[in-house]
Amino acid sequence: MAALSLKQRFAYTPRGHALRHSLAYLSRARVATLLTLLVIGISLALPAIFSVLVTNLRSLDVGNEDANSLTLYLHMRVDDLGGVELASRIQQRDDIRMTRYVSRDEALETFSRHFSLADAVDTLGENPLPGAIIAVMATEDDDEARIAALSQELSALPEVEFVKYDLRWLKRLHALLELVSRAVWLIGGLLVMTALLVIGNTIRLEMLRRSDEIAVSHLVGASRRQIRRPFLYSGLIYGFAGGLLALCLVWLSVGLLRGPTAELAGLYGSGFELSGLNGAQSGLILAISTLVGLTGAWFAVRWQITRLCNPGESS
């Protein structure tokens, strides 16, 4: 009963009256309201979806030991004992944090497990794969000159046939992600501006349709604050509801992409799973959408109310 009494008291305050007035108008103009919400929701959902994809790409496990390591392929004449001893000697270097020796049998087992050419290997009668040493560097940076010098020094060892490192593709991936991230920010800013203009134009048209009502209200003593309040609430409702719709579109898109993404990751032997928005990100989108709705309505009301309340001043 106390909650009902509080609701009744708010309903008869100026803010409660303005809110009821806004909701009543939006419910009457259902088609226009739905179309506006769709435009706002899509405009806000697109940058959010792109941002989710970029965030997931950045979280791929390409950066730690695999990207910060050198692979030393040994000559076929080096046996397992010699490979283990060489890995131990290399690990004693100051610029190497750890090493792991991969025997020829282990390499063949991994190859047979992941590739369909294992039957062809069996016909050779012997293991054609060499042993290898994975050396994780102590310094986690992308100094290509330093890594190239270290690679050349290790490849000069008599047991090593050649050294492989994948720094260049990793740098290209980071550069591509940085480019895509900036493009997402740019496109997101433009789409947010589009949502702001849509809300502002919608509120402006609503005020023009109700110009006679606004003029009469002004003549009977309503202040500009009282006149503008329902339209500001309309913009706030547009923004908040558009943000909710954008979140639904993002969750739907992530759900549709999660299955194909998991299937693709499985083909590459990865356990990667596409993740969606967390609570903080969802709250941020709602806050931005609400602020965009309120800002668009405020600009529209500020520009239009003087022309409607005082026609002589705008001429």
Write the layout of secondary structure elements.
Layout: H1 2-11, H2 14-28, H3 30-58, E1 69-74, H4 80-91, E2 96-102, H5 104-114, H6 118-122, E3 132-137, H7 144-155, E4 160-164, H8 167-209, H9 211-219, H10 224-267, H11 279-309, H12 311-314
Antiparallel strand pairs: 1-3, 1-4, 2-3
Helix pairs in contact: 2-10, 3-8, 3-10, 8-10, 8-11, 10-11
Task: Provide structural commentary.
By secondary structure, the protein is an alpha+beta fold. The chain folds into two domains: 2-62 and 171-314, no CATH class; 69-165, Alpha-Beta Plaits (2-Layer Sandwich), CATH 3.30.70.3040. It has twelve helices and four strands. The chain has helices at 2-11, 14-28, 30-58, 80-91, 104-114, 118-122, 144-155, 167-209, 211-219, 224-267, 279-309, 311-314; strands at residues 69-74, 96-102, 132-137, 160-164. The protein has a four-stranded antiparallel β-sheet. Helix 2 packs across helix 10 (224-267) and helix 8 runs parallel beside helix 11. It starts with a helix and ends with a helix.
Determine the fraction of residues in helical runs and give it as a percent range.
Answer: over 70%
Q: What are the low-pLDDT stretches, counting only 5+ consecutive residues below 50?
A: 6-12
Derived structural class: alpha+beta
Radius of gyration: 32 Å
- Overall morphology: rod-shaped
For the largest beta-sheet, the strand count, sense and barrel status come to:
4 strands, antiparallel
Number of helices: 12
Distance between the amino and carboxyl termini: 53 Å
Q: How many domain regions? A: 2
Helix and strand run: HHHEHEHHEHEHHHHH
Widest sheet, order of strands: 2-3-1-4
Q: Which range does the strand content fall in? A: 5-15%
**Tally of DSSP β-strands:** 4
Mean of pLDDT: 78
